Amino acid sequence: xxxxxxxxxxxxxxxxxxxxxxxxxxxxxxxxxxxxxxxxxxxxxxxxxxxxxxxxxxxxxxxxxxxxxxxxxxxxxxxxxxxxxxxxxxxxxxxxxxxxxxxxxxxxxxxxxxxxxxxxxxxxxxxxxxxxxxxxxxxxxxxxxxxxxxxxxxxxxxxxxxxxxxxxxxxxxxxxxxxxxxxxxxxxxxxxxxxxxxxxxxxxxxxxxxxxxxxxxxxxxxxxxxxxxxxxxxxxxxxxxxxxxxxxxxxxxxxxxxxxxxxxxxxxxxxxxxxxxxxxxxxxxxxxxxxxxxxxxxx
Amino acid sequence: xxxxxxxxxxxxxxxxxxxxxxxxxxxxxxxxxxxxxxxxxxxxxxxxxxxxxxxxxxxxxxxxxxxxxxxxxxxxxxxxxxxxxxxxxxxxxxxxxxxxxxxxxxxxxxxxxxxxxxxxxxxxxxxxxxxxxxxxxxxxxxxxxxxxxxxxxxxxxxxxxxxxxxxxxxxxxxxxxxxxxxxxxxxxxxxxxxxxxxxxxxxxxxxxxxxxxxxxxxx
Lengths: 299, 219
Fold this sequence. Notes:
By secondary structure, chain A is of the alpha/beta class. Chain A has helices at residues 2-18, 29-34, 58-61, 66-93, 99-110, 130-138, 199-232, 295-298, and strands at 37-43, 50-51, 118-124, 144-155, 162-171, 184-191, 244-251, 256-267, 270-275, 280-284, 288-294.
């Protein structure tokens, strides 16, 4: 029985990986020329911020097996339990915060400057099903395309950073493109400036004064995401990073990592970077390192 | 054997992936997901039944219907098919609160607009969060409830509870997400029972409690 369950569980994992799509694809000039209006569909599944907890992967390291799966289960449970216990009092301070409402209020105004006219905007908690996607594509009129924005947002494992990651896709009517893959796909990442030394001390800072800082940063994450949506559609997939790349530091929970990328835009104390990972990142300007390097030097 | 199993799982995954892309169910398209039945089950727990807190001073408990005050009254998360559509979850919470009888209380229903009962404690609740999320192969749930406890002399205390549950995703079935929410609600009940025991004695309780899968001993 346990083995059967394990097989079913593994099948689910494989299902997720089998459906993987490239990190970044962009519209061809011909496709872009056909669009006269976009219909935006914003899917916000989350009801509130959660802690970014990484799934344990002992089973991957030891080459699979039931023992690894059991260890992974226990470790992931423990990590979530610890973070949720810590987040508890903070949640009381943000009970009235409504990310969907904030996003909805910002997007219509923000996308007024989008390179392509944006018509109807729908914000929903309903994750989009394949049937719904087909239905929405089928409802498009000549010249229209569907813009789907799927944001997720977290506090980092050390509670010092607010992150959001949005998958943005553009789909055509079936008559124009019957592809089951999006004609455009971008992943947009926002990271706030770091707050406090980590742990409860950081949560206290987020929650202070009726969670004023949290509300301000969440709003910034939304406006930066919309800014990146606008840049994303005009940023092609680079054939290679043949120009100088800059280093940017990024918080990944209890540690800091460096990403390499090309700065696309700066302003408001932030820099938008096209990373080597093909994601767009909106990072605090202070995260930019002084040293530059070349792609050839990386490889 | 290992190779065969891997191939079989890969083929199954690819098939499921293709099937998902080919799905054209008009109802799914209109709803963008699966309707889930929010059915309370007292037996849904991560672990075996844990020892109940002492409620030797248990009094009568009158449960008013829970009010659904969630910002999102449509969904409780998502699975691979799309949204998990739950609708009104207040009867689910009310059913869970009735299970306080397991802690030694005499539980009865009262209506939302009924005056506070002459005996015992009347409990009025609203649910502000009920959602699930997934990390790897694990499902997690969050349940947040605001409660007002009153006796014949007036409101005794207002209280805010949060609880989470965790479960391994065995089949990817929609019902597993409801089970995970039941885990969360059932983790919360011992905390409510403990508070009721104190309130029945006239003692105050903390304004906030968090209930994880470890039970009432958790800080």
